[in-house]
Amino acid sequence: MSPRSVGILGGGQLGLMLEEALLKLHTDVLVLEPDAESPAAARVKNVLAAPFEHASAVAELFRRCDVVTFDSENIPVGPLVPHAPKLVPSLRVLETTQDRMREKSFLNQHGFRTVGWQPVPEGADLVTSVTRFGTPCIIKSARFGYDGKGQYFLRTPDDAAPLPLAQPGGWVLEEPLQLRSELSCIVARDGQGGTFAFPVFENIHAQSVLDITLLPVRLEQKWQDEALQTAIAVADKLAVVGLLTVEFFVGTGRDGQEQLFINELAPRTHNSGHVTRQACSLSQFDALARILAQVPLHQPVLRPGAWAMGNLLGDVWLAQGRAGGALDLSAWRDFPDVVDVFLYGKREARPKRKMGHFVVHGDSSEKVLARSQAFRAALTARR
Question: Which of 34, 113, 174, 309 is in the most buried spot, having the most CB atoms within 10 Å?
Answer without folding.
Answer: 309
